[in-house]
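Trying the structure run again after the queue cleared.
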Amino acid sequence: MYGLRKWVSAACAAILLSSSAAFAQSVTLLQPGGIEVGSFGAVIDSTARTVNIQETWTSSAPAFLLFSGFGSPRSPSWSVTKSVTNSTGNSWTRFANELLDPLGQANDDALDPLPYPAFVPAGWSTSNESDGLTFSNPRNSNVFASVFRDELTDARDFIDYFNGIIASGGSGDLNFNLFGLHSGEDFLLVQRPNEFSTVIPVPGALPLLASGLLAFGWLARRRKT
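Done. Tokens:
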């Protein structure tokens, strides 16, 4: 009987450990790109819902971070601080960040504009408003004074920091809040120094743009007469 109780206790402990592991949050350097592997670090406080990331870049090649366990519960959001050091030999004047979700979600993927950007790896897709994955306020930096963002359309979820400079040998912080996928699946953060995000115009917006230009031309001609 003692042996049975001991086995049951051990089994319950294993279940508890596996359950804890299943809900643990982690950030992994999936594709180092320009990041020096030995410099990367991520400190996560699940109680305060904060993520502090350290990175030293030796080139400006895109790098991919894999976020795991950041799904439900989604409120409050996670506060993320990225401390980046530029050791590339070139100055940075902007820094692009974009969220990618797993490919193969029929309802979500149908809203993605195609083709996907060239930097999106196989098995992943751009993020739209149906997946729950998004950047949120505040979004700021101690180096870059301006932020160009899109988390409100189905085009893509990205934030680009600019209007500042991180010289080679310098460092800076990029701050943003983050909501994870409704489904709790893994997602990617793509980082691209000295790059900016471009959005393919939504097909429905093209006729609206054309009609606006025609109206502007008609008004201009009317003023001349």
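The helical segments are 2-23, 106-109, 205-224. Worth checking whether this holds up in the mutant runs.
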